[in-house]
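Help!! Second protein's tokens look totally different from the first
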Amino acid sequence: MKPRSPTLEGFRAIFRRPSFGLAEIAWRWSFGLAATLLLAFSFFTFLDTLPVGKSDLLLLRSRQPLLIFRAMAHIFRGSAFRAVGAGIVLALTLGAAWIVLASLGRAATLKALIAYFRESGISVADHEEKSSWRLRSLFALNFFRLGAILAAAVGCLAAILLGAAASPPTDPSPGIAALIFLTVTMLVWLAWSTLNWFLSLAQLFVVADGDDTFGAIAAAIDLCRARPGSISAAGTWFGLAHLTAFVLVSSIVGFPLAFAPYLPPGVVLGGVLLVTLLYFAVADFLYVGRLAAYVATVEMPESQVSAETAPPALPLAGTRLDPNLQVSPAVDATELILSDVPAPS
């Protein structure tokens, strides 16, 4: 059977079945829209609870920065407890909603991708299909992902505190503080991205093989150990495609900004928003394509996956050649450099 590339199969999946990417956009953007509306509603509701007196209005209308700052400080005095309480309730609500919606959306996407590859004949012939997978395993994996995000946020806060401790007011060292902050933040981001990637990949084995939470994580680690070439190739090519899309969008977004002095602000803001949404759509399509490449890696037998083989290494000087060793015709086996027989003087 002709070898196939899982990365190429991932690109083919998103081009042949655009419904995969549209489904990903549907559940991701629906959550994003709901979260944005909820945040806006909570923000304006919080503003309605703030008392504003006549003196505060007078200071706000003075157009003097110092007076406006004093009015704002008086308005927000004593409201920190309510703001923190509202933020905690809002974070818990959005976190729970994200766990449920992300689990349902990922289950639907993975089931569609697995069915696509099995119907196309790419899947292993004797693959034992398990339909008794449980949704609570996906809930647990997404709960761990949410916990990883919270831990990363705490790590970034610790980076700020460490940077501030390294640069006290009595002996300021902004360079050392910035170095500590950037180093700790980079390490936190690297740890979070690695853990989040493994937890995301583990969801595939929950839907495909019916594994439990920790069994799916172990299966994801085993896949990376068994087929590191296919996994790294898919991540690299789709990462480059994502980077290319980001660079193109960053260049395109400059066009509406260039006409800002000549167009109404609403038109410029609408153009920037349209280009940004287009970038998010392309990013979601590429994410589904990378996920499809991982599904193809799991479903395809190892003998069917295309891989580059390294050329055979030549023996070093001072070692005997095995007579049964097949040497390339381009190499002269009688050359003295390939033997330990001393050259005639």
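Here's the second one for comparison:
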Amino acid sequence: MRKVMVMPGRNLLNGEVEVDETFVGGVKSCKRGRGATGKVLVMVAAEVRGSAIGRIRLKVIPDATGFVLTGTVKELVEMDSNGVTDGWAGYDGLAEAGYNHTISRHTPAVAKNLLPKVNRVASLLERWIMGTHQGSVSKEMLASYLDKFVFRFNLRTAGSCGLLFQRLLSQAVQPHGC
């Protein structure tokens, strides 16, 4: 069922979109941030809708190089959208790739959250993994768990749980190469 939570041909994120990466994995005493060992790198993209978070996308990525980050943004976000990132050099190619690129900070700012939407999503994801999966998600299953989290997050304001279940079932019986 997790495979069908991702609609084939779903719309890309658009407008103003915050983009950042986070490490996901069990609790290990090691280096924090970029370069952490034993954890999986996940790109987080969140639409900015005023003070609210719009739709989100999560994707496991192999590293935080410019090639990977720009390619992943192309998979998740419409061209001509405004990509808001931190000052990591890996995002320098976004403007050349056809995005309006806004850098929220050029140097690390302590105690100031300049990417609040993606940081909130990353925090909720970590809390969900810790609570639902007791902090243990295998690397092989992480992508499907991320799809489940995105499905539930993006439909969090839907009015009827029955319609959500009906939508999930209709996607399950649609032939789309799963």
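Reply: Different proteins will give different token patterns, so don't panic. The first helix runs from residue 66 to 76.
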